[in-house]
Amino acid sequence: MTRQRVLSGVQPTGNPHLGNYLGAIRNWVENQSQYENFFCVVDLHAITVPHDPKILATDTYGIAAIYLACGIDLTHSNIFVQSHVPAHSELTWLLNCITPLNWLQDMVQFKEKAIKQGENVSTGLLDYPVLMAADILLYQADKVPVGEDQKQHLELTRDIAARFNHLYGNKGKQRILKQPDPLIRSEGARVMSLTDGTKKMSKSDPSDQSRINLLDTPEQIQQKIKKCKTDPHRGLVFDDAERPEANNLLTLYMLLSGQSKEAVAIECQDMGWGQFKPLLTETTIAALQPIQEKYHAVMADKGYLESILRQGREQAAAIANDTLLKVKSALGYSIPL
Ligand code: TRP
Q1: Which of 7, 25, 39, 45 to mutate to test the pocket of ligand 1 (most atoms within 8 A of CB)?
Q2: Residue 131 class from Cβ within 10 Å (0-12 exposed, 13-18 middle, 19+ buried)?
Q3: Radius of gyration of the chain (CA)
Q4: Residue 172: strand, helix, or coil
Q5: Measuring from each residue's beta carbon to the nearest atom of ligand 1, which residues come in under 6 Å?
Q6: How far apart are CA 288 and CA 252, in angstroms?
Q7: Gap between the Cα atoms of 214 and 291, Å rounded
Q8: Is 163 exposed, middle or buried (0-12, 13-18, 19+ CB in 10 A)?
Q9: Residue 203 predicted with pLDDT over 90
């Protein structure tokens, strides 16, 4: 029996943080043996907003190293860089020409990011979801693990595939592009900001206090948890709408300690913040230590990392180029020998 195929990606912008790990990469790691996996570092997406060329390559390697450090296992998974496989750019162009402009203008993330960019909104920012659709459709992925915020982009991907198959695949009788299903992570893994329990932990938050980066030192972690927002109540509980910070910090403790929700709820029900914060600090430092060690070892051996990415590129390109050929042929292009 062939395994279903999974594809997902993270952008090499900013520091990867606990939200990226607990909300995304950790789930990929947990489920990887069930699937054939492709994990991409989406460096073409990284230039849809202004970026610094001096750090793009290092940040790209950094995310690949984070994948390995978090436990992505090459016997089940491929790790590759989006820009190393030119088919991503090429399919994006072809799909651009069948994607109605208003589909892109309706994307919530575009509207939010466009407000932040002011005058500087690039065509690339508008086109971001078509590039993401190309990433997914090139691999005929069955499942795409993403956060809730990417659900709309996944629906767009399904719409683009259906439209392509309808227009160029004999009214959809030929399934040239496969429609993927989202794998939306469970509620518990939505990690919120340390300075506002109602906002997602995010790379783009201007305050570094709002997040714990995967590569923060023990001192930084201690200082951030010490200062993080809490509430005046005694006794800690999950799922109280009035206490978003309590829910978030308990959830972090639950995920990082590997305990069940019930066990954590009982352990912490009578605690005050002064007792809980050192416990969370210690647990966070201990959970990140092996990841940081592996990350630094991988980054110190560039030859090893490059060999993994080369192998990933080859395996990715074989599949991607096959899909690209089918798409071009359906569109009526002459295919050179
Ligand atoms: N847009 C995704 C995010 O910001 C990243 C991404 C790009 C992606 N291409 C993808 C995720 C393909 C899944 C599949 O989270």
Answers
A1: 45
A2: buried
A3: 21
A4: coil
A5: 7-9, 11, 42, 45, 132, 135-136, 144, 146, 150
A6: 12
A7: 8
A8: middle
A9: no
Which listed residue (151, 203, 261, 328) is catalytic? 203
Contact 176, 137 (CB under 8 A): no
Neighbours of 39 (CB within 10 A): 25
Q: What is the dihedral of CA 167, 109, 151, 194, to 10 degrees?
A: 170
Residues in CB range of 235: below 8 A, 6 or more apart:
269, 270, 271, 272
- What is the three-class DSSP state of 42? coil
Taking the C-alpha atoms of residue 3 and residue 80, their distance in angstroms, rounded to an integer, is: 20
| Predicted confidence (pLDDT) per residue in 242-281, tens digit | 999 999 999 999 999 999 999 999 999 999 999 999 999 9
Whole-angstrom distance, CA of residue 191 vs CA of residue 255: 10
> What's the average model confidence in pLDDT over 224-252?
95
pLDDT tens string 307-320? 999 999 999 999 99
**Rounded to 5 degrees, what are φ and ψ at 324?**
-60, -40
pLDDT at 188 over 80: no
- If you take atom 3 of ligand 1, which residue's CA is the nearest one? 10
Quote the ligand 1 centre to 147 CA distance (angstroms): 9
The residue whose CA is least distant from atom 13 of ligand 1 is 8
SS3 46: helix
- C-alpha distances (whole Å) from 49 to each of 147, 157, 165, 207, 256 are 20, 21, 31, 19, 32
* pTM (two decimals): 0.94
